[in-house]
Backbone:
């Protein structure tokens, strides 16, 4: 895999260090994305999203949802006191521990999480501050007499 030097980007820009850090993380990824557990990301409204993760075999107490440093971290660890007197002929439901990380965009907040029917649903909402929303600037009409006086 190619290696890119992002130092010129740091020198020639102000305030884009987050973009450069993100590019650094993406480029340094080893290319093997985890596939367990499977998940869906859906857009439920203009500024609302839902992440649904298949967590069959885990109880709500064994799951953890945390927002830390601009990332959503979902993890699960099976309790140590699992019933060992069972004999499985086939064990297809994976209950191995996992940690799944989702990078959150600016102004995206986690509003809740629900565990039902073997699925963990995490609700997200993007709240753009008023200062960043587009706004129309009114153009004032100039007084013709004032304009002529300043020109002469």
Residues:
């Amino acid at each position: 895999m190619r290696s890119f030097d992002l130092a010129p980007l740091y020198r020639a820009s102000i305030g884009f260090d987050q973009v450069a850090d993100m590019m650094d993380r993406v480029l340094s990824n080893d290319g093997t994305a985890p596939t367990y557990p499977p998940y869906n990301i859906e857009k439920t409204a203009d500024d609302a999203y839902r992440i649904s993760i298949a967590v069959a075999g885990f109880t709500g107490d064994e799951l953890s949802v945390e927002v830390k440093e601009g990332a959503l971290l979902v993890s699960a660890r099976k309790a140590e006191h699992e019933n060992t007197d069972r004999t499985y002929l086939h064990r297809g439901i994976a209950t191995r521990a996992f940690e799944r990380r989702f990078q959150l965009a600016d102004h995206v907040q986690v509003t809740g999480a629900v565990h039902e029917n073997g699925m963990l649903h995490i609700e997200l909402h993007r709240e753009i501050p008023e200062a960043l929303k587009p706004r129309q600037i009114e153009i004032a009409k100039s007084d013709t007499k004032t304009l002529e006086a300043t020109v002469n």
In short: The chain has a mean pLDDT of 79. The longest strand covers residues 108-116.
